[in-house]
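Here is the promised in-class demo. Please do not try to memorize the tokens; focus on the logic of going from shape to residues.
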């Protein structure tokens, strides 16, 4: 399955893909072993990888987002399966892969092409009651998720992020998914928590004043003026049964995480894990999970990113 201009293709995962992505060990049952067995035909959680970095590059970001999903798979399939983790609820559907780049590529055009292609993949493969988990790629992919979700139900988004991604909408890139969704009316409400004051410009700050937007700054948590768990509960309290909520985790919100906008300041991985678990516990209707912007560029970074993403997926799917 290819995108309209052939810049991306979707590869459905088979048993051979799983078998080649992990190592069995005597006396252990790993997630790879489980997924090699008989699969639940309608798992609750459906993992889709996205191997692309055109979105971050179009937003002047760091390359490497195309390597996040392979790093995740290597870690996740080697984690332990046991009675405390509902393994039958999880499946890997496949991955969207960006074709070879050339110097003449129009990155903004490719991002728009991927918007349509990801929405098509979701529409054709995710059934009612299933929750997609997107791993890898840039934050540009949030727009397709919002468009897909809003076809069926009013959709709100909670985003844990150092950047609001509310930039101007002339050209598509990883920094304007939410401003585009608000502009076109597919996003009912947007909450972005933990913004870094130094990295959101005047235009973005003006967008944060919209009635449909709630925001908080990371510096407020540093000073004890806000509590993340309380902010999450206060946001969720405003959504009723007619609203489904997507969870966005930009990996650059985690301090020292290899990402397209790596920062020495931010949440710890354990704080984000707690946030994901709380969201899962307290959200009545979940639209999706998007784990985005991780950008490993060497073996050590791939190990860090792979394990971090694996922890977050297991926290969300338990």
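The designed amino acids, position by position:
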């Amino acid at each position: 399955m290819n995108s309209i201009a052939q810049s991306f293709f979707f590869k459905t995962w088979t048993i051979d893909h799983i078998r080649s992505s992990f190592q069995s060990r005597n006396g252990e049952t790993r997630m790879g072993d489980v997924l090699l067995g008989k699969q639940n035909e309608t798992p609750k959680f459906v993992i889709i990888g996205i191997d692309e970095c055109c979105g971050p590059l179009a937003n002047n970001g760091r390359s490497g987002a195309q390597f996040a999903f392979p790093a995740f798979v290597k870690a996740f399939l080697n984690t332990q399966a046991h009675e405390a983790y509902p393994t039958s609820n999880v499946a890997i559907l496949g991955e969207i892969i960006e074709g070879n780049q050339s110097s003449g590529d129009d990155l903004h055009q490719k991002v728009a092409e991927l918007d349509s292609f990801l929405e098509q993949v979701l529409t054709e493969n995710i059934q009612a009651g299933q929750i997609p988990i997107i791993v890898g790629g840039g934050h540009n992919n949030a727009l397709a998720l919002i468009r897909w979700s809003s076809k069926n139900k009013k959709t709100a988004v909670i985003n844990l992020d150092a950047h609001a991604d509310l930039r101007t909408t002339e050209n598509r890139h990883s920094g304007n998914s939410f401003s585009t969704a608000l502009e076109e009316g597919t996003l009912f409400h947007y909450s972005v928590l933990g913004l870094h004051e130094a990295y959101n410009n005047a235009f973005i700050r003006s967008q944060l004043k919209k009635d449909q937007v709630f925001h908080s700054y990371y510096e407020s948590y540093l000073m004890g003026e806000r509590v993340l768990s309380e902010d999450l509960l206060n946001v969720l309290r405003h959504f009723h049964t007619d609203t489904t909520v997507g969870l966005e985790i930009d990996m650059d919100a985690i301090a020292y995480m290899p990402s397209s906008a790596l920062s020495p300041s931010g949440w710890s991985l354990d704080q984000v894990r707690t946030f994901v678990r709380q969201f899962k516990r307290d959200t009545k209707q979940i639209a999706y999970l998007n784990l985005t912007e991780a950008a490993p560029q060497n073996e050590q970074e791939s190990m860090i990113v792979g394990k971090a993403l694996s922890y977050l997926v297991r926290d969300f799917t338990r």
